Amino acid sequence: MTIAVIDYGMGNLHSVAKALEHVTHEHVVVTRDARRIHGATRLVLPGQGAIRDCMGELERTELRGLVEEQLDQQAKPLLGICVGQQMLHDHSEENGGIDCLGFMGGEVRRFPADMRDDQGHRLKVPHMGWNLVRQHHAHPLWRGIDDQEHFYFVHSYYVDAADDAQVFGTTDYGRVTAHVATGRDATFAVQFHPEKSSRAGLKLLENFVQWTP
């Protein structure tokens, strides 16, 4: 039993791996070896930085086809994290517009430059720090996690999903409601960083390890 953190050069690879090791006795490996990824029982697709670079590195390392194959087959659970969530949708506004993997419908949009809270105070972009997540639909990965629990975020872009049935968690930042947990079939993806989100984040990773779609 192996959990493969897909190493295409982008993301908190080793932090994610350490957090997974904390919640499971299964073998956790950070790898770009196609045979090891094919042989794993669960996959994690992390991501960090500009989406152009993430998509470019996925191509450069020749891992895009493998990831798309795994998504098409849905034979094993896959968890997307941060830009790893954004990449699973159709298109991003970042870097002048980037086509993504298109596994789930929807756009990745930038937070408006002049973000304000309900009192009119200016909000910073990127959205950085702790924010509550509303559980929009039930999902096995929410098991044992309170609705409106806090998770840790660092992002300037957010998912605006096309299909409400694929939205499992939302967060409000200013007047924007971001779809911060999305999923389809055996794939679940989050904008926040579970590996940095204390008890709730570790519980989500534990649920992923135990999830049988």
UniProtKB/TrEMBL annotation:
Domain of life: Bacteria
Domain Glutamine amidotransferase, chain residue ranges per copy: 5-209
Predominant location: cytoplasm
EC number: 4.3.2.10, 3.5.1.2
Key word Nucleotidyltransferase present: no
Entry-linked SUPFAM superfamilies: Class I glutamine amidotransferase-like (SSF52317)
Entry's localization field: Cytoplasm
GO annotation, biological process: L-histidine biosynthetic process
Annotated active site: 82 (nucleophile), 193, 195
PROSITE patterns, sorted: GATASE_TYPE_1 (PS51273)
Known pathway: Amino-acid biosynthesis; L-histidine biosynthesis; L-histidine from 5-phospho-alpha-D-ribose 1-diphosphate: step 5/9
A GO CC term attached to the entry: cytoplasm
UniProt KW Protease keyword: no
Swiss-Prot/TrEMBL catalytic activity: 5-[(5-phospho-1-deoxy-D-ribulos-1-ylimino)methylamino]-1-(5-phospho-beta-D-ribosyl)imidazole-4-carboxamide + L-glutamine = D-erythro-1-(imidazol-4-yl)glycerol 3-phosphate + 5-amino-1-(5-phospho-beta-D-ribosyl)imidazole-4-carboxamide + L-glutamate + H(+); L-glutamine + H2O = L-glutamate + NH4(+)
GO MF assignments: glutaminase activity; imidazoleglycerol-phosphate synthase activity; lyase activity
Record key words, sorted: Amino-acid biosynthesis, Cytoplasm, Glutamine amidotransferase, Glycosyltransferase, Histidine biosynthesis, Hydrolase, Lyase, Transferase
Function statement: IGPS catalyzes the conversion of PRFAR and glutamine to IGP, AICAR and glutamate. The HisH subunit catalyzes the hydrolysis of glutamine to glutamate and ammonia as part of the synthesis of IGP and AICAR. The resulting ammonia molecule is channeled to the active site of HisF.
Record note on quaternary structure: Heterodimer of HisH and HisF.
Protein name stated in the entry: Imidazole glycerol phosphate synthase subunit HisH
Lineage: Bacteria, Pseudomonadati, Pseudomonadota, Gammaproteobacteria, Oceanospirillales
